[in-house]
Specification:
The protein is 54% helix and 12% strand. The chain is α+β, with helices and mostly antiparallel strands.
Length: 856
């Protein structure tokens, strides 16, 4: 028969499993809240920017499993681009698609698999969070950690339905690796692991447990290498912890054998599992690159392993010589600094590489300044202090975590400062640094936040005695038979009874007092058995403070999960169906016919939705060329960029003029103050900043295209602007934000006029939305009176239908409707020289033909 203790333990384990299953189910449902928004237009639209390229890779891998795209000619057009993303995430997506589609999935099945994968991985992450928290504290805190993690906004956002991005796998694998390492440290302490004890390994099986956990940790790290190119920074954390813990051990007079064994076992596993793939896929010229899978990862892990072994030996030497403990960190840091100095002296390129790597993870660097998610956690893109990102990512978990850190410092001081606790605190500081430097790493910090928040809740619950009150609440009540009955004879012997038999009055008084005492005791027990509702309500309020804001934030962004708006979807759908198709979309090793230029934010959208090559995309390829084109004040310079890159279409939107132009200017090597004047004007409510556009901005290619519809440009014509439906279902032309322009040779209107005379060509047009606009271009006659004006629009009727336009429609490329005109060009040279009704054919525009004009 089992003892009461074993029954209670089994009951608690069963309850814990049921709770964990319920939490996992809730986590899954929270991440599926975005399903309606993602599938709103009848198909699955990925969430974010990088998600679109992951989806492209998943489609390719599904058709060519297990091959994946390593080089893509549709990126960084026309040069193409080596893809730095490791393949595991996309292989998982393709594998899931093949399973769901029974080996032959259709388009919808592949999209479903890609959109569902982050939900599954995010839900699975609940398990290592529970394991880590339980190992550090207890199962109760583990359950609470898992519950908070199920709803914490930053991770739900990262793993929601449609967020086809490898960041969710980063959290899963890194948390699993750290959880296994924590288990290894605990098991090593319990087993008394040391080099001497390893001799007893066959007979002492418990000595194998920390090694097994360490190997599992290394396996997770190896999978992380296959998933994220930034994995080395998290693997390097093991070496950082090793150094700190060995210093503490040396100071406390403890041996670090266990630490060397666990760390070396983990790193050796990473090396053995990751080396084959990294070496196998290394490409010529990229054999030692940190931005691609290569020999770099192998050498890096090998260096960490060697460093751990050397530091372990050095620590043992310091201990054996009974030297002061501070010699160890001092000499180690000196050697590290000397190594950097030597590296800088003999290999400046390698030194710069190390420094740039540190800058990258601190959020500093040229291109990072244009990435909003790479900004500091506590500051907006304008440099203003704000808590919006903190609250939006963690709810009230961040301040709760700060309070928990303070309490942990009090509880874990002194002898309680165990290795696994040092590991957790250092892990928390490391993750916090990454998140504070770049808010996009908040998803990594979310694990530490939920564990700390759960710890704080349990401390508060224990101070309130919540567990005991909950037990009272669910107790059926105190049975009458269990209460003490009044017994006037309690404690009396027969002799005493006989002595007081004749004293009825005294006996009556004593009996009355005893009954009263028993009644009071019974009443006290009944009162003690009733729950304290104030404490229970207080506990519910504490839970609500943590959970309610998180759930509210998740519900809010899940309704608007899709970042690509209707304007871009409409424009890219038009681009795909109404322009000449490019070749080799499913065979991206070959160069397609032409490219599309826009700002890099939109590159992945263009490649996936329009199936067209992009000059610049979200890998920050081609950004310098795009910035140079959009800020160019010279039409000839802008044309040289388009010619060099073989661009056929240019896409703009209003955000490029408004919020994004600051970064476009910076990457072009210019200052925003060159284009905007910022003035502070005092009003009744205080000072307000007024922005005044300078002439330098109006002279840029971007302004002329988007704000002036290509006016004064002779080779770019508006072929489409986004269509947004009104409430009554009609198409509206006002407020459109996305415009597509075609680059053409342009017809040349030439002739003679007075020397140095300004000649102007005008044409009234109507866009595909029905919006009227005026195109114009000017030229100045030379000293002989000769002039030539390039114009991009024909006036002939192509025979295509246009719902909004009237009159002659102008075709784009292979016949897609662009703009409509009701008349020919009007040419004006001075006040008295005007020529109207000038006709231009599409062939004149596409071939750059010259049309001679004579003024009457």
């Amino acid at each position: 028969m089992r003892s009461p203790e074993s029954k209670k333990s089994a009951h608690n384990s069963k309850l814990g499993i049921i709770s964990l299953i319920a939490i996992i189910s809730a986590a899954f449902l929270m991440r599926m809240l975005s399903y309606t928004a993602v599938t709103a237009n009848g198909r699955i639209t990925p969430v974010g920017f990088d998600a679109f390229y992951h989806m492209r890779r998943i489609f390719y891998t599904t058709s060519n499993f297990p091959e994946y795209i390593r080089f893509d000619s549709y990126l960084n057009y026309p040069s193409g681009f080596e893809i730095g993303w490791p393949p595991l995430y996309d292989l998982l997506g393709a594998g899931l698609a093949l399973v769901l589609g029974a080996g032959n999935p259709d388009t919808h099945t592949v999209e479903l698999a890609g959109a569902l994968l982050p939900v599954l991985l995010g839900t699975l992450t609940v398990i290592p969070v529970y394991v880590a928290a339980s190992a550090l504290f207890n199962r109760k805190i583990g359950v609470f950690s898992a519950a908070i993690f199920a709803v914490i906004p930053v991770h739900v956002y990262t793993s929601q339905f449609g967020m086809v991005d490898h960041h969710v796998a980063e959290v899963l694998l890194s948390t699993a690796a750290f959880a296994f390492f924590i288990l290894a440290l605990k098991a090593a302490r319990d087993a008394g692991l040391s080099f001497a004890a390893l001799k007893n390994l066959p007979s002492e099986r418990k000595l194998a447990l920390p090694v097994v956990f360490s190997v599992c940790s290394g396996a997770c790290f190896a999978l992380l290498v296959y998933t994220w190119i930034g994995a080395p920074i998290l693997i390097g954390f093991i070496a950082l912890y090793f150094f700190l813990q060995s210093v503490l051990d040396l100071k406390a007079g403890r041996k670090s054998d266990y630490l060397v064994i666990c760390s070396a076992s983990s790193l050796l596993t990473v090396l053995l599992l990751s080396a084959p793939l990294c070496i196998g896929v290394a490409r010529p010229g990229l054999e030692l690159s940190a931005m691609f899978l290569s020999w770099f990862q192998v050498c890096y892990v090998l260096a960490l392993l060697a460093g751990v072994l050397l530091l372990g030996a050095f620590s043992a030497y310091i201990a054996s010589r009974k030297l002061d403990w501070w010699y160890y960190p001092a000499l180690t840091l000196f050697a590290f600094g000397a190594g950097l100095f030597i590296l800088r002296s003999f290999s400046g390129e390698s030194y710069d590489f190390v420094i740039e790597g540190l800058k990258y993870f601190s959020g500093k660097g040229g291109i990072l300044s244009s990435i909003s998610e790479a900004g500091p956690l506590f500051f907006t893109t304008n440099g203003e202090f704000s808590l919006a990102a903190v609250i939006g990512n963690f709810g009230l978990g961040f301040p709760a975590a700060l309070a928990a850190i303070f309490l942990l410092g009090l509880e874990w001081r002194g002898e309680k400062f165990l290795p696994e606790r040092v590991f957790f605190l250092l892990w928390t500081g490391f993750a916090a640094y990454l998140a504070i430097s770049q808010r996009r790493f908040s998803y990594l910090f979310s694990v530490n936040v939920v564990i700390l928040t759960a710890y704080l809740l349990m401390v508060l619950f224990e101070s309130l005695g919540v567990e005991n009150e909950v037990k009272k609440l669910f107790r059926t009540g105190i049975k009458t038979g269990n209460l003490p009955e009044p017994n006037p004879d309690t404690g009396k012997n027969p002799k005493a009874k006989r002595k007081v038999k004749g004293k009825a009055k005294e006996n009556s008084k004593a009996e009355t007092k005893q009954k009263a005492k028993a009644a009071r005791k019974s009443k006290s027990l009944l009162a003690a058995s009733k729950p304290d509702y104030f404490k229970l309500v207080s506990a519910l309020i504490l839970i609500g403070i943590i959970f309610v804001p998180c759930i509210g934030i998740v519900a809010g962004f899940s309704k608007q999960a899709v970042l690509i708006d209707e304007d871009w979807q409409d424009s890219l759908q038009w681009l795909e169906t109404s322009t000449p198709a490019t070749s080799h979309y499913t065979e991206p090793s070959k160069t397609p016919e032409y490219g599309v230029l826009s700002w890099w934010d939109y590159g992945n959208w263009i490649v996936y939705l329009a199936k067209r090559p992009a000059v610049s995309n979200n890998f920050q390829t081609g950004v310098e060329d795009s910035a140079l084109f959009f800020t160019s004040g010279s039409e000839e310079q802008a044309k040289s960029v388009l010619d060099r890159l073989n661009v056929k279409y240019v896409i703009t939107d209003s955000k490029m003029i408004e919020g994004k132009f600051r970064y476009i200017a910076e990457l072009a090597g210019k200052n925003i103050e060159d284009y905007y004047e910022f003035r502070k004007i005092q009003s009744e409510t205080g000072y307000q900043t007024t922005v005044i556009l300078k002439e330098e901005l109006k002279a840029t290619e971007l302004y002329k295209l988007h704000q002036l519809d290509g006016a004064s440009l002779g080779n770019l014509r508006l072929v489409h602007e986004s269509v947004r439906s009104t409430a009554d279902g009609n198409k509206a032309g006002d407020g459109n934000t996305v415009k597509v322009f075609e680059y053409v040779p342009g017809a040349k209107l030439s002739g003679t006029s007075a020397p140095n005379q300004t000649v102007k060509a005008e044409l009234e047009l109507s866009s595909n939305t029905g919006r009227s606009f005026l195109y114009y271009n000017t030229a100045t006659a030379d000293e002989n009176g000769f002039f030539e004006i390039a114009v991009p629009y024909p006036t002939e009727n192509t025979g295509n239908a246009n719902e909004a336009g009237k009159g002659n429609e102008v075709a784009a490329g292979d016949g897609g409707v662009t703009a409509a005109t009701t008349s020919g060009y009007t040419l004006t040279a001075g006040e008295n020289s005007t020529r109207t009704g000038i006709r231009v054919k599409e062939s004149d525009v596409l071939n750059g033909n010259r049309i001679e004009i004579e003024f009457s």
